[in-house]
Amino acid sequence: MALSDKQRELIEEIGIYHENNGFQPAVARVVGLLLVSDKPELSFDEISEALNISKSATSNALNMLLNTGHIEYTTFSGDRKRYFKIKSSNWRDLFNKKMDDLSALNDLLKRVLEVRKRESPAYDVQLRSFISFLDYLKQQLPSLIEQWEEKTRKERA
């Protein structure tokens, strides 16, 4: 599969972004490739060859992305191969999971303030500010989503 220089650069940039968010390098590059590829689905071999990664690294990356719901696969009649693609229908689920994670972090940070005995006013001010922001975000987010959905409904009409 031929990729342009711009596609390769973007795969790398997407890869770095995802690495900075906890993905392993091969996993991050697979996401990048599936996003920028001209083909809607790619086979195992196409992914391995395009990224020049081992079959083991490709397999591990695809399994991780399948298990976390980031990608899905399809098959075609008469072809035994699986073809992988970004699971774009679940962006809301992934977003909600991120928000749940932030909410759990916020609860933990509130407990930190309750149990910590040391005196550190500057740190406490910053921590309370972050907790306050997370509370505000959790409160405002449903309204923002509703506003966005209304806007997109109007744009489609």
TrEMBL record:
Residues 22-81 form the HTH marR-type domain. Transmembrane segments: none annotated. The keyword DNA-binding applies. It comes from the Bacteria. The keyword Lyase does not apply. PANTHER family: HTH-TYPE TRANSCRIPTIONAL REGULATOR MJ1563-RELATED. This is HTH marR-type domain-containing protein. It comes from Pontibacter saemangeumensis.
